[in-house]
Design a protein that fits this description.
With 102 residues, the protein is an alpha+beta fold. Helices cover 36% and strands 23% of the residues. The protein has a 3-stranded antiparallel sheet.
Length: 102
Amino acid sequence: MMMAKQRANGLPRMIRGSVVTQRRRCGKPNCHCTDGTALHESTVLSYSTGGRNHTVMLEAGEIAAVRAAVARYRVALGKVEQDGNAGLDALLTRRADARRGR
């Protein structure tokens, strides 16, 4: 497996997934969350692998850096998709031109 490039803060430059806020009850009978209005919140990285969803709890100091890494991944993925579509268009145009005898 190829290792991701690390930033100065120790986090990878790009991360696949989504940063989301989870709201949930803790299950303790006397907690303020039992009424369902004041739920516990935690920010997590959500990702899927092997057809299963996973989450990783993020520390407060990591959230901004992880969000930025996810954004960089999405930009890079979009660029790869554009390049792939351009290549497909070029191949299809070449084939169409060959059929027309050009």
